[in-house]
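Sample pair:
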Amino acid sequence: MLLMDSPYALVIEEKLSELVSEEPFVVRLQFEPAGRPESPGDYYLMVKENLCVVCGKKDSYIRKNVIPHEYRKHFPIEMKDHNSHDVLLLCTSCHAISNYYDNHLKQQLAKEFEAPIGSEEGLRLLEDPERRQVRSGARALLNAESLPAHRKEELLQALREFYNTDMVTDEMLQEAASLETRISNENYIPHGLKVVQCHSQGGLRSLMQLERRWRQHFLDSMQPKHLPQQWSVDHNHQKLLRKYGEDLPIKLS
């Protein structure tokens, strides 16, 4: 007898499956499992060799994300099934060359979508000219012996205005001399997110075009000679359109 406190009983009770037999335990699912291969020729059923897909070298290979993670991580969840299609094996030399070419496309995307590339800290923070001027003035005042009186007064006035005070104390002067001149850039959006956001405005098809662009870029730049059978620049696109339709509400990750 099937125990009602078993995990299988709950599945049957929720009508997600139908009990076929208890010995051996067999159930028939009442739903279509996510990710089921669509045909005997499905990409995920193909045997894949452990070799560089570009040159065929069989050792010292590294996983290559054809669609870089900085873009893929922001894709809607519906496009994240079966990411392994876009993870290929490259030898260390081909991997380095591929990254070089990837930077070219990233720079192109940066221009097209006004999405600057750089270190996150460098883009998240902006240099504030006023704070820089205050710090420079305070450092000059700490060595004010050679400063003309009128110049000294100009620098002191700038400090009074910055601190909104009538008198500049020694403590203020020391604080100003080590003032942080960078401020938070409230308009900062990471490069990858900005590019994906711009494509998401065109809906599911536009995001698939970005995915296809990166796949085609890999083919054009590296000309791989050992790709797995059924690997395609349009992989999963028709399945997505059949399942969700072109008007799928886009929710970025």
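The radius of gyration is 30 Å.
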